[in-house]
Amino acid sequence: MKLITAVVKPHRLDEIKEALQAFGVQGLTVTEASGYGRQRGHTEVYRGAEYTVDLVPKVRIEVLVEDEDADDLVDVVVKAARTGKIGDGKVWSVPVETAVRVRTGERGPDAL
Amino acid sequence: MNGANTAFVLISAALVMLMTPGLAFFYGGMVRVKSALNMLMMSFISLGVVSLLWVLFGYSLTFGDDIGGGLLGNLDHIGFKGIEPTSLWGEKPDAIPVLAFALFQLMFAVITPALISGAVADRVKFGAWALFITLWTTVVYFPVAHWVWQADGWLFKKEVIDFAGGTAVHINAGAAGLAVALVLGKRIGFKKDPMRPHNLPLVMLGSGLLWFGWFGFNAGSALAANETAANMAFNTQVATGVAMLGWLAYERIRHGAFTTLGAASGAVAGLVAITPSGAAVNAWGAIVIGLVAGVVCSWAVSLKYKLGYDDSLDVVGVHLVGGVIGTLLVGVLATDGVGGATQLGKQALGAFTVLLYSFVVSWILAKLIDVTIGFRASEDEELGGIDQAFHAETAYDFSAVGGSARSTVPAATGASAPQKPHNKKVDA
């Protein structure tokens, strides 16, 4: 199993959800996140005092998949998340040792 | 008694009352989340403290007959002695009940110390603050209001024009703010940590309430529903609108954006500046006053970074500077024959004596509190947020995680929590 994590622009969330559903993904977890990449943040002005806001709003999407689907799914997420502008985010996958469905106790691929 | 004037002054008093919660929102939105409630409370507490002081001795010290030298009222009306519902203020046929006048003036005494709180945001003990406004209102506000507004007051007799409080309210509060900020020192992290306003819509709401209430503040100061009140109300609107434009234009040129905080701040700067002057000028004078106040105050708020004092919410830049602008410009722009170099000299005398008196006495009072009971919150309280430290509350519940209920209210007899049914015999 693999865990695919995507940290992307919040307004791409709906596109990504639809693409994942079309691919056949059953469930996902979304967390509000903040961070920056190479573009850094933006500047805000309050009574002449300028603040650099480094951490910009992002969403973090996590999906568990079987090994053979992982690469395809990363591509699906990247395609749906891309706007071509700076700050589009990152997607990565990592191996997962165990997954358990809490309701039934099923383990491994059966738990997905 | 004049019914029209009485109605007008009573309504104006209610309008001015609304300015204090308005100020609370204006300031409250500008601080960080962790001290939003304390900022509201520092204004709100003034409604309690000063209302009590006003009855005990405030009204008497301010509007009692002079004790000599034009410095302070006497104690004839202490505890509102001798004031009946039928007592009148002013000359017939314009007279209004003393209670209407006293209520209107009470609202001025309430908002003035509340204005100071912006200079010390985020870092004072709440009890020490309540003590400070008790002492400050007694030793600074009541005498200064007597100097400027009571017919026996020495600045009144010098013909200093302060129609609705440029000196007694704004310069007075601004100078006090500077003094207290200097005694307390800077917030932890000043110029290093981000101290962004946590809620600009709240700031806009507050400035809107201030603008609305200020019609009562300014026009009501005529104490009559007459031409002076109308002129003042009109000029209040024009100067405020133009000051907002002035502040925004300055910001756009200097910082590249028309900010919401700038619009709200510019409006307040215009309101401050037109306060002493609005009854003596025409609409064009109001435009000039508004424009100068908007641009100069917008520049002045950056002084704290250059000079290194931490006036958290710019009480100096907006109220002191705006008050001085409005007070001095009366000497330049007055249309009813009082303008000119002589009047400018009188205005400067009024502005700078009030500034000096307020600064020196406020500094002493703040220092006195600091060395006795301690004025400043501890480092832990300041870093953790003074809302929790002094009010046992937080302004917003952002997370459902954390915290469990522990009621301190004993259950009422006969209304205890539902019992488990297993011991009860249930009839079939």
TrEMBL record, chain A:
Segments crossing the lipid bilayer: none
Keyword Phosphoprotein tagged: yes
UniProt-listed GO biological process terms: regulation of nitrogen utilization
GO CC aspect terms: cytosol
PTM sites of type O-UMP-tyrosine: Y51
PROSITE patterns, per database record: PII_GLNB_DOM, PII_GLNB_UMP
A Pfam family that the UniProt record links to this protein: P-II
Keywords in alphabetical order: Nucleotide-binding, Phosphoprotein, Transcription, Transcription regulation
MF annotations from Gene Ontology: ATP binding; enzyme regulator activity
Quaternary data: Homotrimer.
Identification of the protein by name: Nitrogen regulatory protein P-II
Species in which this protein is naturally found: Streptomyces violaceusniger
